[in-house]
Amino acid sequence: MTAHGNNRSVSDFPPRYRDLATALGGNLRSSTSGCYCRLETTADSFDQLGRIELGSLLATGSFPLAAFTLEDTPGQTHVGDLLFVDTETTGLGGTGTVPFLIGCGRLKEDRFEIRQYLLPDYSDETALLEDLLTEFSPDTALVTYNGAAFDLPLLRDRFVINRVARTVPFGAHLDLLHSSRRLFKRRIRDCSLVNVEREVFGHARHEDIPGYLIPSVYFEWLNQQETSNLRLVLEHNRQDILTLFYLCHQIAAAFESEGRSLDEIDDLHSLSRVFGRRNQTAKSITIFDRMEGEGERELSADILLYHSFILKRSRDWPRACAIWQVLSDRPGREGYWASVELAKHFEHRESDIGRARAYARRALELCPYGEEHRSQLNRRLERLSGKRAR
After folding, report:
1. Closest C-alpha to 79, from 114, 44, 109
2. What is the C-alpha to C-alpha distance for residues 300 and 304, in angstroms, rounded to an integer?
3. I want to staple 165 with a disulfide (CB 3.0 to 4.6 A). Which of 159, 207, 280, 311 is the partner?
4. Which of these, 161, 144, 140, lies nearest to 152 by C-alpha position?
5. 281-294 and 301-313 helices cross at what angle (nearest 10)?
6. Do 245 and 379 have their domain in common?
7. CA distance readout (Å), 182 to 1, 71, 176, 213, 268
């Protein structure tokens, strides 16, 4: 155990602090502001998440920022500049919530290092935060999971309350919750980090402590000096940080390979939608071509409808019309919109008024919307009748 600072040594603090550090294999660090426990570990390069080995990821140099943002953000972020942050707290938010364990992970040369800052008691929060502040800098790119809504505002508030800093200094912020939702939510629904591990990586945690129990474990320590379950909390936090590192690679690979690293139809469609929103039509069509070529299962109506509009944007009328004709035979909103598009196509591009009227009537029959849509269709039918009479 080591002392930090000149005015107060570790021996100035209660013996239970030393018991905590000894039980968990950490070091006590003291200053004029208080004392806290820090644990430092290096992840084994043979660690695996599903079939992916950590060692295979350590040589990665950089990630494209566009993989983690809603817009097509230019540029790269160097992996060595990333700081992976995860907190364990005494509650789910509010004035009284305190982060009693803060984990930070970084790639250092050819190894992944994790430092965990553990709070022995509330009175020592300032000391912990003063040292934690050294992890951050304006050049640091933070990686979190729901950090924009929870971890970062909480840390900022604790820095301010303890008069340590006015804000959390960092450059870019990659919140992987939003990135994961864009890619995987259609398929897995629940985008909690543990479920992403299970459904995306095929990894199930063993002997993991549920998140809702973590505050009570810390209160056991405060009230009874019980440390046995704190080990589980530390491992839970450590695993969260490692998973963020794996997940960064998984998301970046999906974008850099334009979907070739993905196998699930729903994930491919989700990636195609991201490219579609960015007006990267060629990339979206390439992904659709792959989905069509799989042939293992029929594509759902909403996928077909979405890609028909991408094909329309690229003016590939034969393929778009082929999809609309398939969908127009189906009930529901997809059949409705396909029939509307065919009515417009045959009126304006083919000058086939008879078929345009037939599809307009089909759209009216299928219309799942309110009176405004029906009125538009009736006006279209009246116009088409006038054209036919002329």
Report:
1. 109
2. 6
3. 159
4. 144
5. 140
6. no
7. 45, 12, 10, 29, 11
Together in a domain, 62 and 151: yes
Are residues 358 and 217 located together in one domain of the fold?
Answer: no
Domain count, the chain: 2
Residues 88 and 213 in one domain: yes
Residues 6+ apart with CB under 8 A from 253: 261
The C-alpha angle 47, 267, 290, rounded to 5 degrees, equals: 115
CA 272 to chain centre: 17
Interatomic CA distance for residues 139 and 279, integer angstroms: 31
**Looking at residues 105-110, what average pLDDT do you find?**
92
Q: Is the pLDDT of residue 6 over 70?
A: no
* pLDDT of 39 strictly over 90: yes
Tell me which residue range forms the domain holding 318: 300-389
Burial of 192 (0-12, 13-18, 19+ CB in 10 A): middle
Angle subtended at Cα 201 by Cα 197 and Cα 205, rounded to the nearest 5 degrees: 45
**CA torsion angle for 301, 303, 306, 309 (degrees, to 10)?**
-80
The tokens for 20 are 């905590």
The model carries a pTM of 0.92
Parallel, antiparallel, or unpaired for β 27-31 and 34-42? antiparallel
- The structure tokens 């002997």 sit at 207
- The answer to whether residue 243 sits within a structural domain is yes
Residue 146, judged by CB atoms within 10 A of its CB (0-12, 13-18, 19+), counts as: middle
Tokens 């998301």 correspond to 251
- Mean of pLDDT over the chain: 94
**Residue 99 neighbours by CB under 8 Å, 6+ apart:** 87, 88, 89, 119, 151, 154, 155, 158
